[in-house]
Amino acid sequence: xxxxxxxxxxxxxxxxxxxxxAIAAFEQARAEFLARGDARKAAEIENDLGVAYVRAxxxxxxxxxxxxxxxxxxxxxxxxxxxxxxxxxxxxxxxGGTREDAAKNYRRAADLxxxxxxxxxxxxxxxxxxxxxxxxxxxxxxxxxxxxALAARGGAGVLRALLQIPLxxxxxx
Length: 173
What we know:
Layout: H1 3-15, H2 19-36, H3 39-55, H4 59-76, H5 79-95, H6 99-116, H7 119-135, H8 139-153, H9 157-169
């Protein structure tokens, strides 16, 4: 199979819940794109591969692969894939208990999504960051992250106005 076909096959297998088979297809496709020097496509596949590793319970492989995806996306100027891989890495780090690094990566992913003009992804990432902050009892940061999520969506004016009150009183806004 050709690299694009292998990638498509990996996506199909992943959708069917056949994560180990999807991993094998993604790994082959990634190797072919890397051999061709196509960092852009390799990064996209590495992001998918990282997610498949997570589903297969292979967190260490997921973290390593997502970091490679970020590097390849950066070198290829693929902002959207860099943002997705960074957000996925944040989830892996959060699940592994490395919450400060997770928060840093959620913030970075949200900024990348913002730069890429992907408002929905930006808002979703900021909501994940909000949940992380809430779980750690960091209420002010949670409020600020949720305010940014609402702003990314471009709505909820009344709720945003209410959120601004404690932020202004505490000198955050």
